[in-house]
Design brief:
Distance between the termini: 36 Å
Order of helices and strands: HHEEEEEHHHEEHEE
Structural class: alpha/beta
Strand content: 15-25%
Helix content: 25-40%
Number of helices: 6
Shape: globular
Oligomer: single chain
Largest sheet: 5 strands, mixed
Number of strands: 9
């Protein structure tokens, strides 16, 4: 499942090009972005599996901790990766999650809220400091999928205490979070988790704000 640097670059370039085609006045949402990115990947000779029909992220796999509860949330059914990218040999070469924006990423972990209504979560694994990463549901779906498909299980995911990509994403699977609108503060907040996974946040150029 190791992806070559050239294939990683290809996926990144395709996503960036597709995001740059979005019109400034176009109403953005996942329903617009997801099929647009998938079509671009397919046109480039890759295979974009929408909603993970191949079940790369297995059914019932726990993927995050609730922000308020700080407990691992059970998965009753199946969490679906927005786009699982396959190469011409039917090997998974990248994961792509799509968000209309990242406005639910918040710094204040003590804010009163209900986990069911939030996109921001905590990671199951921890940083080298022993703290759970401030994260996003879409990031943690990719993190869990990368870990479980590298032979790990929930116990080994929970046991990770590191900042290193080699521990959080052992096969260095390219992970991309594509968003219609990104603010500098949101990118900064999610930065440590992205760095630990080797994940990249890509946005529509004219909608990236400070």
């Amino acid at each position: 499942m190791k992806t070559t640097d050239s294939l990683r670059d290809t996926v990144r370039d395709v996503l960036r090009s597709a995001l740059s085609e979005i019109k400034p006045d176009e109403k953005l949402g996942r329903a617009v972005l997801q099929p647009h990115l998938a079509q671009a990947l397919n046109t480039a000779g890759l295979v974009a599996d929408l909603e993970d029909s191949g079940q790369f992220l297995r059914s019932g796999a726990p993927v995050w901790r609730g922000r308020a509860s700080r407990q691992i949330e059970p998965t009753a059914g199946r969490r679906r990766i927005d786009i699982v990218v396959y190469d011409s040999d039917s090997r998974v070469c990248a994961l792509v999650e799509v968000e209309s924006d990242l406005r639910h990423a918040v710094k204040d972990r003590s804010a009163t809220t209900t986990d069911a209504n939030r996109y921001d979560v905590l990671s199951i694994s921890t940083a080298a400091s022993g703290e759970h990463f401030c994260s996003y549901r879409s990031l943690e779906r990719m993190a869990a999928a990368a870990h479980y498909n590298a032979g790990g299980d929930l116990a080994s995911l929970e046991a990770i205490r590191s900042d290193a990509t080699a521990d959080h994403n052992p096969v260095d699977l390219p992970l991309f979070l594509a968003s219609g609108e990104i603010f500098f503060a949101q990118r900064s907040l999610l930065g440590p988790r992205c760095k630990s996974l080797g994940a990249e946040i890509l946005g529509v150029p004219h909608r990236a704000r400070r």
